[in-house]
Design a protein that fits this description.
binds 1,3-dihydroxyacetonephosphate; eight-stranded parallel sheet; alpha/beta; TIM Barrel; 9 helices; globular
């Protein structure tokens, strides 16, 4: 298979010790795919692995300052992190990040030349009313779709953490539509596992894996395109 983006989003799992142990094991993997891991921010380590790029799941859009509880660019620079996820649905829904906040983050980190995984995705309600494409378009209206370090992650909310991945034709339809809007790589996330990864990789530029990335054997299988 051509080179794909294969990313693991650890969310709020694995402490530092567990993260380091995982990364040391994963770093031995031989693959032509591009591997990214997004650890919990307090588990972040120097971004100097040969075969893995580390990224931040979130960061405030400032160099540093009075933003109690947040981390800022200064904290990522210390670890040479220059990859970030913006707009994940858990940030949007649990932490009330609006399109406006996501846009501010996008423009700040674009200025810093970060590789940006920009997440979009519709709710079940929107999908059931057949409005997903216009919804996705609207979510993308606030960012620069020509930014050269952009990766668009299509993650339908109803498929995240539910064990119900989108069907291949649903993924295909959304990816084809998104390809008409941007030349950026388009990846898919939502209940990707070692059984469905290969088929999903065939029709996308990559995958963003949550739960299944927490098991290194499963993630290895995913990177090797299936069991
Ligand atoms: P799951 O793979 O656990 O559904 O999570 C997907 C996700 O949110 C990746 O960012």
């Amino acid at each position: 298979m051509d080179e794909k983006i294969i990313a693991g989003n650890f969310k709020s799992n694995f402490n530092r010790k567990e993260t380091i142990s995982y990364l040391n094991k994963l770093n031995h993997i031989k693959t032509n795919h591009k591997i990214f891991i997004f650890p919990a921010i307090s588990s972040i380590v120097e971004n100097n692995f040969n075969n893995i790029t580390l990224g931040a799941q979130n960061c405030y859009f400032a160099q540093n300052g009075a933003f109690t509880g947040e981390i800022t660019l200064k904290h990522l620079e210390e670890f040479e992190i220059n990859t970030i996820i913006i707009g994940h649905s858990e940030r949007r829904n649990l932490f009330l990040e609006s399109d406006d906040i996501c846009a501010k983050k996008f423009h700040f980190f674009k200025e810093q030349k970060f590789c940006i995984f920009y997440c979009i995705g519709e709710s079940l309600e929107i999908r059931n009313s057949n409005k997903e494409l216009e919804f996705l378009k609207k979510q993308l209206e606030v960012i620069d779709l020509n930014y050269k370090n952009l990766i668009i992650a299509y993650e339908p909310i109803w498929a995240i953490g539910t064990g119900v991945n989108a069907e291949l034709n649903q993924i295909k339809d959304c990816i084809s539509y998104l390809k008409t809007l941007s030349k950026a790589p388009i990846i898919y996330g939502g209940s990707v596992n070692e059984d469905n990864a290969k088929d999903i990789l065939k029709i996308t530029d990559g995958i963003l894996v949550g739960n299944a990335s927490l098991n290194i054997n499963k993630f290895n299988h995913i990177i090797k395109e299936g069991k």
